[in-house]
Specification:
The protein has 129 residues and is α/β, with parallel strands linked by helices. It has helices at 5-20, 28-36, 48-53, 64-67, 73-80, 94-103, 117-122, and strands at residues 40-44, 59-61, 85-89, 109-112. The chain has a four-stranded parallel beta sheet, with helices on both faces.
Length: 129
């Protein structure tokens, strides 16, 4: 299979974006503790169709397709208020890394989770009714 110069450049860009952000080392227990203490918020970056199929009770939806527009610091302030830690999750962890890259340097500590939706349910996060 041959790659054009354009497709090779896009692939390198995506790889560099993923490697620039790293998954948080916070365990699911630490995440739950920070959420309960009001120090953090949990954001689901999956698309609305996935959200509608099931989501975590503590999560807020902010689709990666909307984050890709490059939100401002004011956008984040409206969404998260004074909470400084923002945990991001998706289905498998990759989109959380992309979203983290878009949201970094906005005045919040962005922590993408390696655990996806199903893993977080297994770790004891509650599913929304």
């Amino acid at each position: 299979m041959r790659f054009s110069i354009y497709s090779t450049a896009v692939l390198l860009l995506l790889c560099s974006m993923v490697s620039a952000a790293e998954h948080t080392k916070d365990t699911p227990e630490v995440v739950k503790k920070n959420l309960k203490a009001g120090k953090a918020t949990l954001v689901d970056v999956r698309e609305v169709e996935e959200w509608d199929e099931g989501h975590l009770a503590d999560a807020k939806l902010w689709q990666l397709s909307d984050i890709n527009d490059g939100p401002s610091k004011d956008d984040l302030k409206k969404r998260f208020g004074d909470k400084t830690v923002v945990y991001l999750h998706c289905r498998a962890g990759t989109r959380a890394l992309y979203a983290a890259e878009k949201l970094k340097d906005k005045g919040y500590e962005i922590r993408p989770l390696k655990q996806g939706y199903a893993e977080l349910l297994k770790a004891g996060f509650k599913q929304a009714d």
